[in-house]
Design a protein that fits this description.
The complex is a heterodimer of chains A (112) and B (118).
Chain A: E1 9-13, E2 18-23, E3 31-38, E4 45-50, E5 55-56, E6 61-64, E7 70-75, E8 84-92, E9 106-111
Chain B: E1 5-7, E2 10-13, E3 19-24, E4 31-37, E5 44-50, E6 65-69, E7 75-79, E8 88-95, E9 108-109, E10 113-117
Classes of the chains: A mainly beta (112), B mainly beta (118).
């Protein structure tokens, strides 16, 4: 599975959009991009995933560049409760290992 | 159940003792994973079960660690002769490994077991 690179930390003002970048330049054609977040003292929570088209759900939007070498997770109106560590993970559905490998993620601090 | 259930939520044990941590996955989820997270660190993969296939044990840190999954459902992670460096939050997750384009391989995590070895 491809490796990802994320900034270690970011700040965002409450009510503004939080844009979290992720580089995955070695991604292959059958690999999906997944985003999870971990709020302090809780288990990680699935947010969204995509292959090549942009995706949106009730939590966030995922924008994947045309060459698929990077993506951005967008929280449109960040709240204090969105303060968490955000993990970008690339994994192929055909992968027979099954496991997600979590990197260090981006610590997002939403400030009032 | 509605979510992944782990027990106990907290466990304090003396160095050298054995401990068992339990995970009840979401009903129908064929894949089950164990991770651990030391204080201030990221998630470290331990072991993965998928249906009746042999488990992927590549993340187990030593032979003191073992896990089993009975009947394709409940899983137990056992740590023998615990050491202080085993202190961490042990997280279990399950997923539907149904495959196919567009399938959601999203994991659902439990709340974890906080293990403290004194």
């Amino acid at each position: 599975d491809a490796k990802t690179t994320q900034p270690p930390s970011m700040d965002c003002a409450e009510g503004r959009a939080a844009n979290l970048p992720c580089n995955h330049s070695t991604i292959s054609g059958n690999e999906y991009v997944y985003w999870y977040r971990q709020i302090h003292s809780q288990g990680p929570q699935y947010i969204i995933h995509g292959l090549k088209n942009n995706e949106t759900n009730e939590m966030a939007s995922l924008i994947i560049t045309e060459d698929r070498k990077s993506s951005t997770l967008i929280l449109p109106h960040a709240t204090l409760r969105d303060t968490a560590v955000y993990y970008c993970i690339v994994r192929g559905l055909s992968s027979n290992t099954g496991k997600l490998i979590f990197g260090q993620g981006t610590t997002l601090q939403v400030k009032p | 159940g509605a979510g992944v259930s782990q027990s106990p939520s907290n466990k304090v044990t003396e160095k050298g003792k054995d401990v068992e941590l339990r995970c009840d996955p979401i009903s129908g989820h064929t894949a089950l994973y164990w991770y651990r997270q030391s204080l201030g660190q990221g998630l470290e993969f331990l072991i993965y079960f998928q249906g009746n296939s042999a488990p992927d044990k590549s993340g187990l840190p030593s032979d003191r660690f073992s896990a089993e999954r009975t009947g394709g459902s409940v899983s137990t992670l056992t740590i023998q002769r615990t050491q202080q460096e085993d202190s961490a939050v042990y997280l279990c997750a399950s997923s539907q490994a149904t495959g196919g384009a567009g399938s959601n391989y999203g994991y659902t995590f439990g709340s974890g077991t906080r293990l403290t070895v004194v």
